[in-house]
Design goal:
five-stranded parallel beta sheet
């Protein structure tokens, strides 16, 4: 690796001076920097320079080190690689003794011993490795990550510096050592004052490490070339993030390469789209990694713009508002142009899942691929990029499709509704906002009645969880008119889907009465029914007493199956949110079963009913915890 010659040049120059001193300076140097700032890269580069100049050094990591003996093990493995084998280490430990000593240290130079630094006198003789200790360098990395007594570790290093004349370089994130949650830091400043003679700060040197980053993060040559062309953009996002964390950036670049590797050739060749995708991915990756953004923030983030409300209706600013405001204020990025839906981004960052078909289809639906066969509603979405004559052609096309009830995808229909509502509010079209709201509701009623919408619980879930569809945010989605129409659409779909469930109620009755299908499969198996009843709140269609009578009238073997099916139905966390509508029903069923308990005439039946009630109450607890 080539040593950086820019941001951290002063650090290198001082280390050159320190390591080149002819005698023993009697103090160590601390090189500090935040996690991810590039300390490891820097010290690797610097040790290369030491080697090139024939300077002897030993580099050990204090990560996880809990005793000075573990440091000596590392010294021994470096200086005596043959003896450091399993047998060699055992022989060495049997042959050596452990000598402890206490050094009285006058930390503030007032003549009195203010603290006792209990240290292990080194049991390893490094003179066979170093011909001249005054010119020899010991490098201790990850000081903040040692798990042992910090006073003892520093006292051990101090012995080499003061008693043996070695030079020592310590690498650490000093902020973590000074952090109050570290129980071993109260007197750190006293120990530092005696041992550390100079503190140097490493800054994230993206300029100097950029090429290394690209090589390490990306193996594909074409992708590397693209990232090198995007260097100014990458530097800008990194600087605006203010995290100063090169590891976080490297992680983001690796994530980008993962996405790039599944893209179709025509998308890879679209430099403008790729550049915008890279910019947004870097922002999201670093903000999510830093904990600024949570998984439920992305729909709201993609609904954000310069006019976004940052206060709730009651005037209070929520934590989510603060997080989104913090992100949007940092970057010059139009977050409504999310390129992909919030659910695709959430899957990428929070579950690790990436659907190649969805990603490619969504990206082809962006303005960067606008062509003659691009849906006119997509072209109209980019209203501010259109010339007047283009707008008129596209608006008339979308309006005609709207009048013909041509939009069968509820997500697309809501896009069209949002654009028409926006045009009405801005008085670009003649229809008043009240008239447009009425027309949108009539469209919804007609599409549901005539079954023109493609409906499923997945569609409803998507509408409920997002502020956009197809990688595009809904236009003016903060307006009261949009909220009213969107709620109407979701409510009507919900009612329609609930009605469709009634056709399956008889299947559950038949299963409890002993006929096919199997009740457990019906209520818990994802593939048992095309309607996926394991995720649908079908049980709430039963009156609790009606369901209990079915249960109580069944043979005991079936009673066991009913209890088992209800217990397993809510086991999967992914199902609980969709089945939360059954919570109140389960409570009422438990109450009904408890009322019947005193009347249970037989010991076995009574025992089974007790178990059934226990299962219901535990299930209610599980759903309540999930709701919280």
């Amino acid at each position: 690796m080539g040593q950086s010659q820019s941001a951290n040049q002063p650090v290198k120059e001082y280390l050159d001076f320190y390591c080149g001193l002819p005698g023993s300076p009697g103090y160590a140097v601390l090189v500090t920097g935040s996690w991810g700032s590039g300390k490891t890269h820097f010290i690797e580069d610097y040790t290369d320079i030491l080697s090139q100049n024939d300077m002897r050094f030993l580099l050990v990591s204090l990560y996880g080190v809990s005793s000075t003996e573990q440091i000596e093990d590392q010294f021994f493995q470096i200086t005596s690689p043959i003896l450091s084998s399993k047998g060699g280490v055992l022989a060495r430990r049997l042959a050596k003794g452990f000598l402890k000593a206490a050094f009285k240290v006058d930390w503030d130079n007032d003549g009195s011993t203010d603290a006792t630094l209990t240290a292990t006198v080194p049991n390893i003789d490094l003179s066979n490795y170093f011909s001249d200790t005054s010119g020899s360098i010991l490098i201790f990395d990850d000081l903040e990550r040692c798990t042992g007594n910090l006073k003892e570790i520093l006292g051990y290093i101090n012995y080499f510096v003061e008693k043996e004349g070695y030079k020592a370089i310590l690498i650490a994130d000093e902020k973590k050592i000074l952090s109050p949650e570290d129980g071993m830091t109260s007197d750190y400043h006293l120990y530092k004052e005696k041992l550390i003679g100079k503190t140097l700060k490493i800054n994230a040197d993206l300029e100097g490490l950029f090429d290394n980053f690209i090589r390490e993060a990306v193996e594909n040559l074409a992708c590397r070339k693209f990232l090198r062309r995007q260097k100014p953009l990458i530097k800008s996002v990194f600087t605006n993030s203010a995290f100063n964390n090169l590891r976080s950036l490297k992680r983001a670049l690796i994530e980008f390469f993962r996405v790039w590797s599944i893209l179709e050739e025509e998308i890879r060749n679209n430099e403008d789209l790729l550049s915008k995708l890279l910019e947004l991915l870097l922002i999201l990756s670093m903000e999510i990694h830093a904990g600024t953004l949570k998984d439920n923030d992305l729909p709201d983030l993609f609904g954000a713009n310069a006019l976004r409300r940052i206060t709730a209706k009651n005037g209070e600013i929520t934590d989510q508002d603060r997080r989104i405001k913090e992100v949007t204020s940092k970057y010059d990025f139009y977050f409504r142009e999310s390129l992909m839906s919030a659910s695709i981004w959430n899957d990428l960052f929070f579950t690790g899942h990436i659907n190649q078909e969805d990603v490619n289809l969504t990206l082809k639906n962006t303005k960067y691929f606008l062509k003659q066969n691009t849906p006119t509603w997509v072209q109209l979405w980019y209203l501010w990029d259109l010339e007047d004559d283009e707008y008129l052609i596209l608006y008339n096309s979308v309006r005609n499709n709207f009048n013909a009830r041509a939009y069968s995808d509820p997500g697309v229909a809501l896009h069209v509704f949002s654009m028409l509502l926006n045009l009405s509010e801005k008085e670009i079209i003649e229809e008043k906002i009240e008239e447009t709201i009425k027309e949108c509701k009539e469209y919804i009623d007609n599409a549901i009645k005539e079954e023109k919408f493609t409906l499923s619980y997945e569609v409803l879930s998507h509408l409920q969880s997002g502020r956009g569809h197809g990688g595009l945010g809904y236009t003016n989605n903060e307006s009261d008119s949009f909220r009213e129409v969107a709620k109407y659409l979701k409510d009507r779909i919900s009612i329609k889907l609930r009605d469709s469930l009634k056709n399956h109620k008889s299947k559950i009755v038949a299963a409890i009465q002993g006929g096919p299908p199997d009740l457990h499969d019906l209520l818990t198996n994802d593939t048992m029914s095309g309607e996926r009843l394991n995720r649908r709140p079908i049980l709430k269609l039963f009156d609790p007493k009606e369901f209990f009578d079915l249960y109580w009238g069944a043979p005991n073997e079936t009673k066991n199956k009913v209890a088992s099916a209800i217990k397993d139905r809510y086991e999967l966390a992914s199902n609980r949110a969709e089945l939360s509508e059954e919570l109140e029903w389960l409570e009422r069923l438990a109450d009904e079963a408890s009322r019947q308990l005193p009347q249970a005439p037989f010991a076995v039946s009574k025992m089974m009913l007790n178990r059934f009630i226990h299962t219901l109450k535990k299930t209610v607890e599980t759903l309540r915890e999930n709701a919280i």
